[in-house]
Amino acid sequence: MTERRAGDTRTGTARALAILRAFDDAHRTLSLSDIGRRAALPIATAHRLVAELEAGEALIRRADGGYEIGPQLWHLGLLAQHAGLREAALPLLQDVVVKTGHTVHLAVLDRAQALCVERLNGSGTVAPRHGPGGRLPLHCTAVGKVLLAYADSGSGVLSETELVRYTHFTVTDRSLLARQVAEIRRTGVAFSEQERRLGVWSIAVPVLAGDRLVATLGIIAAMGTPRLRSTVTPLQGAAAGIADRIRAGDRSGPARHPRSSVASR
Amino acid sequence: MTPAPTRPEKSVTARALSVLAAFDVTHPRMTLSELARRADLPVATVHRLAKELERWGALERDEDGRYGVGLRVWEIGLLAPIHRRLREVALPLMLDVHAKAASNVQLAACDGFNAVYVEKLTSEQAVPASSRVGGRMPLHATGVGKSLLAFQGPAFVEALLTRPLDKHTQWTITDRGGLRRQLARIRADGYATSRQEYRLGSQSLAVPVLVDGTAVAALGVVEYSLERDLMAHLPALREAAGGISQRLVTAGADPFPSLIDE
């Protein structure tokens, strides 16, 4: 390709994917020149690739000329295993919100971060700053610490996690964090007390299928919320319910999960 | 500007998208050879593309080595406008219906000549694969589908009626006159039912979510049993659909802002 920028060793597929990656929560609509800049592609290349992605309905062009992610990617994304997890979990997340009044979220480990699969808001609590698709650091959030605690010991996630200081409560000492993580593995409950944001507490528990971590379920609340620790019981109940539903899904049909069989149709 | 290539073979992008598009609700996991067959590409090509897509997170492999759609696609797909506004507005009200009905609650929108599930809350552990979020359903045979259809413009309905009406069960309405009469009744009643018209043993009730007289979505309850009293859910469905309409109107714009020119 003559248009390839000097030093750009990316393949055609990688460049098309870079265009999709140019979109995120803060950049849902992009012009062609935004896309070129954010994907580090010359405008002519961006133009051609965008046309190909549009032909495949991965992108759609708005009446005003801006581009957005197309419904085709939404449809495909729902086939990912975590979309099934989310569907299985939703009614149980709702139970936790009803019982506790707090915002609840479900997260999985993805690329050394906690990827939020679903979030339901409670009535009178802290406004969460992440929705489905949002990401949280592992070392200073309750859901993140659960993911660290139950990650495969061989995965090296703990040693690779960068211990960024967000508040003066953030644990940045690796050996202290290792001790906390061991304690979480023993008790099955993780806490973060203002370690990510001042004034905010979070609690999380693992969703375990057998001894394998499927996800983590957590609550966030304003500091000083009375009886916050009493929310552990409904959280654990919901986590067990989600694990049951996943197991039932595995047995009976739709592929909700990587261990399930091909849909029985 | 470089013109789009006119050579007959597919571009790399098109081939990568064909690999992804080979997946659907009935084929969520595939071996390399299944994937190549459904994508209509040589195994060697798919092997190379799949490796690259996997590295990027667009595909994942399970422990049996079969490919599935990866988390990265889910993450990017969330940015699609069809999902975002409608779901955010509707989910709290759907949860209310779910709590009252103790049943399967679904929100659907039109996607071409199909209904597509935008959100779904299940109470039963095993629901058919095709009724998952993102699954497409026929407009003429399901409760949500008929609710959507009854409150579309006449041109849309006429265009749909020029197409074959697939017979899914012995109860599916495939007679155009019969469907027209039923749509008129749905407009008058404000709700639609489907009794085993899509799948034997299941029945559904749905109401439209109306903005300026057009259904932008439909909210329904599905029972995978014929014993349950479907109509008992009507008040809760109406209240929730009314709430969703009101919130959409207050929010002040089309629920799918980018689809206006379609």
Report on this structure.
The complex is a heterodimer of chains A (265) and B (262). Chain A has 265 residues and is of the alpha+beta class. Helices cover 40% and strands 18% of the residues of chain A. Chain A has 9 helices and 8 strands. Chain A has helices at residues 12-21, 32-38, 43-55, 71-77, 81-100, 142-150, 157-160, 174-187, 232-252, and strands at residues 59-61, 67-69, 103-110, 113-120, 135-136, 190-193, 200-209, 212-222. Chain A has a 6-stranded antiparallel sheet. A two-stranded antiparallel ribbon of chain A has the order 1-2. In chain A, helix 2 crosses helix 3 (43-55), helix 5 (81-100) runs antiparallel to helix 9 (232-252) and helix 6 packs across helix 8 (174-187). The longest helix of chain A has 21 residues, at 232-252. The model of chain A is unreliable at 252-265 (pLDDT under 50). Chain B is of the alpha+beta class and 262 residues long. In chain B, 41% of the residues lie in helices and 19% in strands. Chain B is built from 9 helices and 9 strands. Chain B has helices spanning 12-21, 32-39, 43-56, 71-77, 81-101, 143-150, 154-161, 176-189, 234-251, and strands at residues 29-30, 59-61, 67-69, 104-111, 114-121, 136-138, 192-195, 203-211, 214-223. Chain B has a 6-stranded antiparallel sheet with strand order 6-5-4-9-8-7, sandwiched between helices. In chain B, strand 2 and strand 3 (67-69) form a beta hairpin. In chain B, helix 1 (12-21) packs across helix 2 and helix 6 crosses helix 8. Chain B starts with 11 loop residues before the first helix and ends in an 11-residue tail after the last helix. At the A-B interface, helix 1, helix 3, helix 4, helix 5 and helix 9 of A face helix 1, helix 3, helix 4, helix 5 and strand 5 of B.
Identify the notable features of this structure and list them briefly:
heterodimer; A: 265 residues; alpha+beta; six-stranded antiparallel sheet; two-stranded antiparallel ribbon; 9 helices; 8 strands; 18% strand; disordered C terminus; B: 262 residues; three-stranded antiparallel sheet
